[in-house]
Here is the input.
Amino acid sequence: QVQLQESGPGLVKPSQTLSLTCTVSGGSISSGSYYWSWIRQPAGKGLEWIGHIYTSGSTNYNPSLKSRVTISVDTSKNQFSLKLSSVTAADTAVYYCARDGYCSGGSCYSQYFQHWGQGTLVTVSS
Amino acid sequence: EIVLTQSPATLSLSPGERATLSCRASQSVSSYLAWYQQKPGQAPRLLIYDASNRATGIPARFSGSGSGTDFTLTISSLEPEDFAVYYCQQRSNWPPLTFGQGTRLEIK
Here is the structure.
């Protein structure tokens, strides 16, 4: 069973760069045809997809964040990472990493999220 | 960007009652829609994929229907553990993948 765990600073100052890492266990990040996503959720609000990466390094980002986001992957460590630059208070949220793809009965459906990390709260404040 | 609008924002029902939640897309997403359940302090859980297919381990009281722009999640008889927030999500046209704003299902 795939498990994901986010890690990184819980407090980031305005204008700085938010950096988070997602460690995948229970399977290789390189196995299967999956993208690996970052999703965030401000307190009391809905879910916002930030972007995802394939293990080849191919990425797609939410256009609303594209100018500030970088997602990278380190297959040797079974990890992928998020960097969000020039943060403001509006970037305060719980950040989730998730596997992009649902598989059942030998079929896989991409861009649905079956496996999620527990989430990590990042607060932007001076 | 495809906007998903969920209604109602809050639904107040009693255990044993039937719940009907709606998700409307700003343009057709064919059947490429999922539903998630989220409880406080937890990550979302995938319930339904491709509009009407239950994910592994999801009880039969959960069902999804619809195609194009109008979708429904139905919980046939509410159990106490079903009271949560529900989100729809489309994968038809991306980036970005988008979610609805959520429906809170609360105990009446």
Chain B has a mean pLDDT of 97.
